[in-house]
C-alpha cells in the first residue's frame, strides 16, 4: 500500500523552529517530486515548497523564502521541511505529496500531485 506519513508538527513559539518529515512506505520516493502544502480551515491549500526527484531543484512560496528549507534523503525514503523563524501565520495543517516526475522539475500546484499524506498540525503561538 502506497503511503506518505508526515511527522514533526507541534506547538512552537514565534521565532522558533520545527522540522517536518515525510516518510514513504510501499514505494520509493526516488522517482517522485515532493511538495509540501499547508491549509488553514476556510482557506485554499497553499503550495509551500517542492523538491525535484533529483533534489537539484527546489521552489518556495514567497511567504516562506529564506525561512524554510526543503531537502530529501532518498536512502531513508524521506523528505524534510526545516522551518525556522516561524510566525503565527505559518499555523496550518501541513501535508506532503508525491508527484511521479523524474528529473529536475517540481511543482507547487496541488492539482498535479498523485499521493498525499494525512497531514500534521503546526501551531505557532505564544
What is the 3D shape?
A: globular
Number of strands: 11
Number of helices: 0
Distance between the termini: 39 Å
The average pLDDT value, as a whole number, equals 96
Low-confidence stretches: none
Helical content stands at under 10%
Series of secondary-structure elements, N-terminal to C-terminal: EEEEEEEEEEE
Q: What integer value in Å does the Rg equal?
A: 13 Å
Beta-strand percentage range = over 45%
Structural class, by secondary structure, is mainly beta
Give the biggest beta sheet: 7 strands, mixed
Task: Write structural notes for this entry.
This protein is mainly β and 126 residues long. 0% of the residues lie in helices and 48% in strands. Strands 2, 4, 5, 6, 9, 10 and 11 form a seven-stranded mixed sheet that branches. Strands 1-3-8-7 form a four-stranded antiparallel sheet, with no helix packed on it. A hairpin with a 4-residue loop joins strand 7 and strand 8. The model has no long low-confidence stretch (mean pLDDT 96).
What's the short version?
The protein is mainly beta and 126 residues long. It contains no helices and eleven strands.
Task: Describe the SSE topology.
Elements: E1 3-7, E2 10-12, E3 18-25, E4 32-39, E5 46-51, E6 58-60, E7 68-73, E8 78-83, E9 92-100, E10 115-116, E11 120-124
Parallel strand pairs: 2-11
Antiparallel strand pairs: 1-3, 3-8, 4-5, 4-9, 5-6, 7-8, 9-10, 9-11
Amino acid at each position: 500500500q502506497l503511503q506518505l506519513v508526515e511527522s514533526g508538527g507541534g506547538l512552537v513559539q514565534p521565532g522558533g523552529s520545527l522540522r517536518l518529515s515525510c516518510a514513504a512506505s510501499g514505494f520509493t520516493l526516488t522517482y517522485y517530486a515532493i511538495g509540501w502544502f499547508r491549509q488553514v480551515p476556510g482557506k485554499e491549500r497553499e503550495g509551500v515548497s517542492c523538491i525535484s526527484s533529483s533534489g537539484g531543484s527546489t521552489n518556495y512560496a514567497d511567504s516562506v523564502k529564506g525561512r524554510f528549507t526543503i531537502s530529501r534523503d532518498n536512502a531513508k525514503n524521506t523528505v524534510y521541511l526545516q522551518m525556522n523563524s516561524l510566525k503565527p501565520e505559518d499555523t496550518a495543517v501541513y501535508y506532503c505529496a508525491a508527484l511521479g516526475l523524474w528529473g529536475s522539475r517540481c511543482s507547487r500546484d496541488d492539482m498535479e500531485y498523485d499521493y498525499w499524506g494525512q497531514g500534521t498540525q503546526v501551531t505557532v503561538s505564544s
